[in-house]
Amino acid sequence: MFDTLLIANRGEIACRIARTARRMGLRTVAVYADADREALHVAQCDTAVRIGPPEAARSYLDAAAIVAAARAAGAQAIHPGYGFLSESLALIDACEAAGLIFVGPSREAIRRMGSKIESKRIAMEHGVPVVPGYHADDQDSAVLQAAASDVGYPVLIKASAGGGGKGMRVVRGAGEFTAALDTVRREAQASFGDDRVLLERYLDEPRHLEVQLLGDKHGHLVHLFERECSIQRKHQKVIEEAPAPHLSPAVREALFAHALTMGRAIGYDSTGTIEFIHDSRSGDTFFLEMNTRLQVEHPVTELTCGIDLVEWQLRVAAGEALGFSQSALSQRGCAIEVRVCAENPAADFAPEIGTVVGYREPRGEGIRVDSGVRTGSRVTPYYDSMLLKVIAHADDRPTATRRLATALDDTVLLGVHGNLGFLADLLRHEHFAQRLCTHYIARAFPAGWQPREDDGLAIAAAALHGVLATQAAAAGRTAWQSLGAWRVPGGGAGGTRVLLEDGQRCVHEASVSPQGEGWRVRVGELERVVAATLVADTLELRHKGVTTRFTVALERHASEGERLWLAGAGRTRTWRRLDRWQRALTGAAAADERGGSRLLAPMPGLVTQVQASVGMTVNAGDTLVQMEAMKMVHTISAPAAGRVSELRCRAGDAVRGGDVLVVMDIEDNRGKTR
Questions:
Q1: Is residue 367 within 8 Å of residue 375, measured between CB atoms?
Q2: Average pLDDT rounded to a whole number, residues 6-24
Q3: What is the end-to-end Cα distance of the chain in Å, rounded?
Q4: Could you read off the pLDDT of 635-667 as tens digits, one per residue?
Q5: What is the DSSP track for 138-156?
Q6: What is the DSSP secondary structure assignment for residue 132, as one 8-state letter?
Q7: 623 by DSSP, 3-state: which?
Q8: ∠49-52-58 over CA atoms, to 5°?
Q9: pTM given for the model
Q10: In 454-579, where does DSSP find H-type helix?
Q11: In sequence order, what are the residues at sequence separation of 6 or more whose Cβ sits closer than 8 angstroms to the Cβ of residue 284?
Q12: Residue 347: what are its φ and ψ, rounded to 5°?
């Protein structure tokens, strides 16, 4: 066994690999781009080496820089994690040239499975069924469009080198094909450096199932059972579990047989996953692809099989044989995993950037957290938006589901919006107990997900926090000391007025005044009389005999002023505190914008296409601008019919989240622009 391991990745997977390596007595080396200098994975390793600027192409995707870092730090092996260079032939070749061990399968296995086109050919040669489609080398646009007509619409365009839900579009008619093909090619080239595509028939009721394989370099290969990964958004997995529920024994055994057939066909010798799509209507199961690396969802297999997959990756890479056979393996209970991302589900899942100003992981029986963040971590636009994974294990699926939903309620992530509430609602939805399919999210929330209605306590807490903190400062104390029912000096009968702007830029005026041993808080027609205590970052409200606790964090910006983050009762909320001058400016801006529509960049990124021009008449839904951010292509469309009055971006521009890209004059009901 080697003694020093370089982890060629970042975030939660780098931290997770380091945890097992330390347990095995190995020294660990982190690599980091400039944007990750203070990242958690850097702090958790024994040594850290800078590999380049923030852009992934010049750092985490630079095989030469990775190998140079390993040699400088005295590492004998490199673990690539997943994503980035995990399936890179260039990294394998660089490792071989430098005399380093690549922790993963053979070069030939990665080469043969790295192309979805070739992997499907191998499957068909060995009798493993594949989805009807086009898997040939000719990439001429006219040939592809003709093939799509032969396959039959709807058809799925997929990047041949793709993964992680990137480089995929569903096309429902011939008129949409050319634009969708162009988008997939751009996204594939940007994400994988390869713009080749394949076509597949789009199935109406698909389940996404997969089988975990583990092999060694002595010819042994076993499966570690199946996982259900059907709950997806834009073809990217959201919730995964093991075992797959509502699956017949016949289908399960067929999955195992097909997976082992594919693994043996290429002499597989590490961890890897064979992915399948199962048509619930016909009962047919088709091979999709093989991921020749560790999967994001590997914890659910570890928890149900009792095997550390990273440990066995390292042992196999060092030349050890598997210490068990297929007959020795079994599953225990059920494990479910969710991916917690920096995104705002209430705003069409727009990715978020910022600094984590408050963070607390859930605890409890059967709960595991794989995280790459802590308080102070910066979430940047350069990398994937996933921050952590929360996994629950129990003897049965209903118990695991309840444990996981409660753990999400207990997770605190402040400073960026996250998808915690959305994930908890997915788990608690009545459909979760039924047979799953990849349309689960659209059917659970056909009008889109929105957080539950507030009972008024959260905004009362936001208004009270400022009053209590101000009182503490005036009394020579800090918010880190216990505060009771402080009275407001000079507040008089009217108390203190607090202006709070919510995420939709609506301004709420709250009145806070002492009443007995508590406070009267009035916001519009809403009124609450509460007792309040602020201790450290915990604000406790007592209303009608019920105590509700909120975790609070205050973020200060030079341009935006104070932003208050508040987590509690299963939700995270944020408000900006305004003074009278800011309120006046907000009103003036709103007045200036009446009669027009400003289309904003949803996040920082790069403008790749501008399809509008000043004076152009457009219809609702027309594409005006496309941009790339966090490895995805994002489309800015016209919200309604009208005319483009201003263009404030050009192709190639780097823009910030909230920058105005296009200004439109919107048509009224009579067809006149205003």
A1: no
A2: 98
A3: 72
A4: 899 988 999 999 999 998 877 667 889 999 987
A5: ---HHHHHHHHHHH-SSEE
A6: S
A7: strand
A8: 135
A9: 0.83
A10: 457-474
A11: 129, 278
A12: -120, 50
